[in-house]
Amino acid sequence: MKEQNRTIGIAPYGGSAGGWGALKAVADAIRGQMSMKQDVIALFKVNQPQGFDCPGCAWPDPQHASSFEFCENGAKAVSWEATSKRTTPEFFAAHTVSELWERNALELEGEGRLTHPMKYDPATDTYQPVEWETAFREIGEHLRSYDDPDSVEFYTSGRASNEAAFLWQLFAREYGTNNFPDCSNMCHEPTSVGLPESIGVGKGTVELDDFEHCDLVLCIGHNPGTNHPRMLGTLREVSKRGATIVAINPLRERGLERFTSPQSPIEMLSLSSTELASTYYKVRVGGDAAMLKGVMKILLSMHEERLQNGLPGVLDEAFIREHTEGFEALKADLDATEWDHILTVSGM
Description:
Elements: H1 2-5, E1 17-18, H2 19-33, H3 36-43, H4 72-81, E2 86-87, H5 89-94, H6 97-101, H7 105-109, E3 113-114, E4 118-121, E5 126-129, H8 132-144, H9 162-175, H10 183-199, E6 216-220, H11 224-227, H12 230-240, E7 244-248, H13 254-257, E8 258-260, H14 265-270, E9 274-275, E10 279-281, H15 288-308, H16 317-323, H17 327-336, H18 339-346
Parallel strand pairs: 1-8, 2-3, 6-7, 7-10
Antiparallel strand pairs: 4-5, 8-9
């Protein structure tokens, strides 16, 4: 029963994040998608000043890039984007849509890129090739049939390259709408609306260079090992210079615990790793807001206690007065929130 319920590609793993396992995954992805020579050349241009941005994630590039500014996920994304595999009309003629529906996404991805415009034929339950002129004409007829451009959604995958996404949005804006509900848009639109109301700017304010000077990094509710693996190299440097990394996550993510850098010959040859999070708190799912309220209650208590003892407080009161609103209301809410409630909801 456990074997039947196991997710394809996921299995128990006792090693650190990165290391030889990551290199093997990169080699398998390249070997399975392209000729080694072609793909290796492409990888040397990923996240380089004269190259292209990796479609795998949006982790920033350092001012002085190394030769390998990509991770396992990035190598896989590039190999899939630049694959030499092709899915021809003959493939679709041999497989009905009902049959393809039973395949998983990894299998379908492995068939390669389309070579022709395809249109579904209900009579045969297959996709049939059509000429480009036919495809353009029918798409145009559909787009002209709507009275309101905003009734059309121009959806695309967040895995698409920046260049392809740029051309796609130009086309949609020419049509008359900015309705782009791709996965990146749905992820970042709440931040672009909520953050200006909270901190005055619609994106994070941390720069990559800040990691070189900070004393404490709080990693809350994210998994860099999967979502932005290049951050592991940055966290490794933070840990190496003795700064504190605190992880707060319902699950224990290996990418927040320890990391073997593929660019470190010593770690690779000695099979060693660098410990990342010095402390790991497993907050209950949905309990992060309660946890943060608890942290704020402690900070307020520390601040008031130090002032009463004639010591400098831990809060920057001048900054709060000049740059924030509603602090007294926040403080009153924190005072009214019982510790039993915070501990129960946060699970900490």
